[in-house]
Each structure stands twice: as structure tokens, then as C-alpha cells.
């Protein structure tokens, strides 16, 4: 038998061969059989924990070699993970105290050197990058989030990618943290984002990119982004409005920013290509709770009570932060420190008010004595009632913000139902007789802010289909029957398009196979292709799709996404329209202080500046 015949035989034997020790199978993989004797075998194996191409040799009569290697490699791997995840300098591996600690538990263990550690991290980084590229190459729909951050006189841009797997779970990974040099102009941001998308070869796969409402981000997508919906080739339309004014539809909108910069949207030679843009909905809600609520101050009654109450609140919060003596007094009286507002943390003002209300409710008289001790004007009954009503009014907004900042179990279809429900709750509050009259301007300001900032999104075709294709919502969030029928119509159209696309792909594959098998002497046999298409087939396919859609829409909403596994077309529609994220929270967490990704020590490391392996591996 030739060597070429022996190789497939050996490969087949390896596929059927496993280590005689089942507990080690998840750590080692057999590469080849070196010696195959009747009573034992000598094997060449690869450790799945170690990086690189180094292999081990083992005799099936003893696993001592594996035990020894596993102890050493596992320790090295754990040390590497610890250093990367904690952001500790690489020099820690050469610290004498750490060496002494390791020697106590592993007397014969020699710690790897700093260069070895850096090489291992670099190898793991490259392996991780290749794995991410492979995973994304198998995806049809990808969403990204991006955010820029400045800290310690250095600027960065972070970009994450997210997609939905076939089991309907979401995978999110950090693609890059890049240094930004100079001013963050829209061109600089566009160049940074485009370079990352090109590196991972996902430019044509990204459905939406979510960023905050920063003007430079918005402008970069206006100039270089894809402004058109891939459905019907038209820009997203307001589908829930009955406006059939033909003259209005013929008006062409021109971006003045584009004209000023001398860039034509239809110019195919634009240097950068960005996907469609979605403004972070959590950031938009935060703008409502901050910027838009200032309009409530135009009402004299609300302005007077609000400033009187919050001046006392801020006096408490500030004295806790500025004086250790005051902080100790608060801790002694309340058993805890007060939550304080933070300019960079959304919902922080609401959380601080909730904390105050809770402490006041537990022991109001004791809290008044505390304020006397701190030389702060006491809360009177009007102040306490105002804080209680403020919490009631702001709670739905806070809950909505927390919902939309989700990641693993968050989908694009959550956005419209969340805003619809939020609007409904505030409309009910306006009819309530239990709220103080002075907080009515607060309600009005919130409703006006929601309408101003979300009115277009509530009528967005893509978002409505995303909501209808999510089993948790379906049509339950649409109360108006006319709007419900319109939305169902667009949902069915999306299902039909997906169904036809799948059918076309299957027909093309079948046609290619049949063409190869047919006799090439009859070139006219493929000319009249309609011979193979019958009305019965079309009717059969339509019946299958209609049955699937009726089954989906005819059942009550459920939180179980696995219900889509028996509905293949709707499952594909769900993945297509729910892959984008409503908020950019996933990338903002990268820059969070809690994650310690951008601390002063880590920002001095050169390896963090571009495509940070540290940040990527630790994420």
C-alpha cells in the first residue's frame, strides 16, 4: 500500500481513537500514532490549553506525563488570565514574592519569564482574532457599536460587534480599541471605524451601527453611511402615517453639511464606507431626563419647589463627598452612605433620590436630626412629597433606560414596544389625581421629549418588523387596529421576501446539480425553464408560508425564543431584524471605570494603543 493510501487510513483511525483516560480528553487531542503495539500505543498529542504548536509524546501505559504537563500548563494559563483580566503590568511575573507563593504550592515549578508571557499573550491574541474572523465570516447579519473616549490626555475609539447565533443566543465581542490622534472630526471617526470593518471583512454584513448622539458620530454616518434601506431599495418610511401626499414625496432632501463639505452622497469614490446608523436609545432617554426636563422649569410652581428641594439634596450629597466627618455622620445615622449623582452614569440622579426616599421613610425624625448636625436646612413636608412624586414620575423612564441598556438578551425589537409602553404610562399619569399638581409640568416635558426624539423611530419600518418578529411582543403592543393591520402587512412582506430568497437559493443549487447531470448534447433543454415550474408548486409554497405566519401570529406572546425553531422563515426574519442593538451600552462598558480598561497604568502600555489584545482577551 502506498503512503498516499496510508494517510487517509491513519486520519480515519485518529478520528475514531481517543485517549484511554476520558478525563483528559477535553485537555488533549491526539495528533498521530507514533507506535501501535498490541498492548500499548505511543501517541503524539497537542495540549488544548497551551498556545503555539508544541506537541507532547505519551505512552498509553502511563498518564504521569500528562498529569505533570497539565499542572504546569494550567498554572501558566491561569496566571496569564489573571494578569490580563486585572490589567497588571507584565513585570509582576518576575516578582520575587509571587515566585515564592508559586513555589510553596508547586515546589518544582519554574515560572515563565516576562518575554514568554508577552509571547503567549500575543499568540493567544492572534488566535482569538482569527477565531473572531472565522465566526463572523459565517454570519449574514452583524451589528456594531462604537464610542469615543478621552482619558489622561489620550483619546480612544472602541468598537464591538454582535450577532445572533443559530440557537438564537447573542454573541458580542470587542473588535478594537484604537488611539485617536488629534481632533475627533467626523472624518477621523469614519476612517477609524471603516478600517476596523475592512480588517474583519464585515463592511457588507453590518445592518446597523449604534453610537451615541454626538454630532461628529452623526455627521460621519450622514456623509459616509448607507442611508438606504435594503428593503424595497427605499429609505425607511413612516408606515403608520396615512400621508399620501404625492407632491411631498417628490421633494428631495439635501444634507447641507454634505454641500458645505463638497461631498456628494452618490459619489461612489468616497474614501470610507459605513453602515446605516442608529442613535443610542439609552442616550436619547438620558437626554430626555436631563435636557428636556429643563423645560419644566418654565413653570413657576414647579421651578420653585424643585429648586428648593434639590438644593437641600445636593447640599447633602456634596457634604458627604467633601467631608469625611460628614460622611461618617451619615454612615452612623443611616447605616450606609448616600447614593450620589454622577454626570457620567445615567439614572444616577434617580437612584440617589430613591435612596433618600427610602431613608426618609425608615426614620424621618432621625434623618432630620442628621441634617441639623450637618447644618443643612431640613426637608419639610412639601420637600418629602415632591421627592416621592418625582420618584413615581421618573421611574418608568429609568426602567426603560435600564431595559434598553441590556446586551445578551437584548434585541432591536425591544425598542418600539418599550417606547410605546413608556408613552402609555405617562399618558395614564396625566389623568391621575394622586400626583401633586406641581409635577404636572414634569410629565408634560417628558411626553414632549419622547414625541420629539422618538416619533420617527416609532414609525420606522425596520423597527416595527423587528418588534413583530420577536415572540415576546408580536402585535400585543399595537392597540390601534388600523396600525396593527399595516404593521402585520409589512411583517408578512418581510417574511415573503425571506421565503422567496431562500427558495431562490435552493432552486439555484438544485439547478446547478441538474445541469451537470444533464446531457450536454442538448443545449436547448435548459432554455424553457418554466416547464419545471407549476402553479401547484407556487400554491404549495404559499400555503406553507401562510400556515407558518398564521401559527406565529395566532398564538400569544411568549418569552421563549425557542418557539421560533419550528418556524424557519420567521426565525430568519427575527435574526435579520433583531441583530442590531438599541443602545451602545456594550462598547461603553469597555471604557467603564469598573472594568478598568482605561486606567492610567494601562493607558501607558503601548500594546493597548491599537487593536488591544489585552482588552480583547479580557473581554
TrEMBL record:
Species of origin: Macrosiphum euphorbiae
Domain of life: Eukaryota
InterPro entries: RNaseH-like_sf
Protein name, entry field: Transposase
Amino acid at each position: 500500500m502506498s503512503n498516499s493510501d496510508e494517510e487517509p487510513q491513519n486520519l480515519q483511525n485518529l478520528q475514531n481513537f481517543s485517549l484511554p483516560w476520558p478525563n483528559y480528553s477535553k485537555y488533549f487531542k491526539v495528533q498521530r500514532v507514533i507506535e501501535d503495539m498490541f498492548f500499548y500505543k505511543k501517541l503524539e498529542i497537542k495540549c488544548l490549553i497551551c498556545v503555539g504548536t508544541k506537541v507532547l509524546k505519551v505512552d498509553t501505559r502511563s498518564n504521569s506525563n500528562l498529569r505533570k504537563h497539565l499542572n504546569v500548563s494550567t498554572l501558566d494559563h491561569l496566571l496569564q488570565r489573571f494578569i490580563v483580566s486585572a490589567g497588571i503590568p507584565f513585570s509582576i511575573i518576575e516578582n520575587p514574592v509571587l515566585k515564592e507563593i508559586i513555589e510553596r504550592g508547586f515546589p518544582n515549578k519554574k515560572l515563565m519569564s516576562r518575554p514568554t508571557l508577552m509571547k503567549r499573550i500575543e499568540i493567544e491574541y492572534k488566535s482569538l482574532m482569527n477565531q473572531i474572523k472565522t465566526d463572523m465570516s459565517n454570519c449574514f447579519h452583524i451589528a456594531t457599536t462604537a464610542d469615543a473616549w478621552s482619558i489622561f490626555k489620550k483619546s480612544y475609539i472602541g468598537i464591538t460587534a454582535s450577532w445572533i447565533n443559530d440557537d438564537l443566543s447573542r454573541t458580542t465581542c470587542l473588535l478594537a480599541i484604537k488611539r485617536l490622534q488629534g481632533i475627533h472630526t467626523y472624518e477621523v471617526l469614519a476612517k477609524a471605524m471603516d478600517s476596523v470593518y475592512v480588517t474583519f471583512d464585515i463592511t457588507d454584513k453590518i445592518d446597523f451601527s449604534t453610537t451615541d448622539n454626538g454630532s461628529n458620530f452623526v455627521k460621519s454616518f450622514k456623509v459616509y453611511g448607507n442611508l438606504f434601506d435594503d428593503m424595497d431599495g427605499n429609505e425607511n418610511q413612516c408606515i403608520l402615517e396615512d400621508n399620501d401626499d404625492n407632491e411631498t414625496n417628490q421633494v428631495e432632501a439635501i444634507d447641507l453639511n454634505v454641500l458645505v463639505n463638497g461631498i456628494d452622497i452618490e459619489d461612489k469614490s468616497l474614501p470610507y464606507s459605513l453602515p446605516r446608523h442608529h442613535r443610542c436609545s439609552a442616550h436619547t432617554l438620558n437626554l430626555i431626563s436631563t435636557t428636556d426636563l429643563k423645560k419644566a422649569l418654565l413653570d413657576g410652581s414647579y421651578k420653585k419647589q424643585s429648586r428648593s428641594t434639590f438644593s437641600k439634596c445636593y447640599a447633602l450629597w456634596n457634604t458627604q463627598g467633601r467631608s469625611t466627618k460628614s460622611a461618617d455622620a451619615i454612615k452612623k445615622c443611616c447605616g450606609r452612605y448616600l447614593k450620589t449623582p454622577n454626570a457620567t452614569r445615567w439614572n444616577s440622579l434617580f437612584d440617589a433620590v430613591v435612596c433618600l426616599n427610602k431613608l426618609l421613610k425608615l426614620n424621618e425624625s432621625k434623618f432630620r436630626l442628621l441634617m441639623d448636625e450637618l447644618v443643612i436646612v431640613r426637608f419639610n413636608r412639601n420637600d418629602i412629597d415632591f421627592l416621592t412624586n418625582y420618584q413615581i414620575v421618573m421611574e418608568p423612564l429609568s426602567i426603560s433606560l435600564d431595559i434598553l441598556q441590556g446586551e445578551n438578551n437584548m434585541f432591536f425589537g425591544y425598542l418600539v414596544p418599550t417606547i410605546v409602553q413608556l408613552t402609555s404610562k405617562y399618558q395614564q399619569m396625566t389623568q391621575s389625581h394622586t400626583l401633586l399638581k406641581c409635577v404636572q409640568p414634569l410629565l408634560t416635558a417628558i411626553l414632549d421629549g419622547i414625541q420629539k426624539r422618538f416619533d420617527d423611530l416609532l414609525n420606522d419600518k425596520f423597527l416595527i418588523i423587528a418588534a413583530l418578529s420577536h415572540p415576546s411582543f408580536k402585535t400585543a403592543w399595537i392597540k390601534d387596529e388600523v396600525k396593527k393591520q399595516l404593521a402585520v402587512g409589512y411583517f408578512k412582506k418581510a417574511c415573503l421576501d425571506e421565503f422567496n430568497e431562500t427558495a431562490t437559493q435552493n432552486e439555484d443549487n438544485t439547478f446547478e446539480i441538474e445541469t451537470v447531470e444533464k446531457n450536454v448534447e442538448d443545449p436547448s433543454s435548459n432554455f424553457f425553464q418554466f416547464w419545471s415550474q407549476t402553479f401547484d408548486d407556487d400554491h404549495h409554497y404559499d400555503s406553507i408560508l401562510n400556515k407558518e405566519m398564521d401559527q406565529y401570529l395566532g398564538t400569544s406572546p411568549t418569552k421563549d425564543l425557542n418557539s421560533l425553531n419550528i418556524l424557519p422563515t420567521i426565525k430568519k426574519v427575527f435574526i435579520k431584524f433583531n441583530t442590531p442593538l438599541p443602545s451602545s451600552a456594550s462598547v461603553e462598558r469597555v471604557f467603564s471605570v469598573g472594568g478598568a480598561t482605561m486606567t492610567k497604568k494601562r493607558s501607558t502600555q503601548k500594546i493597548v494603543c491599537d487593536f488591544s489584545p489585552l482588552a480583547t482577551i479580557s473581554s
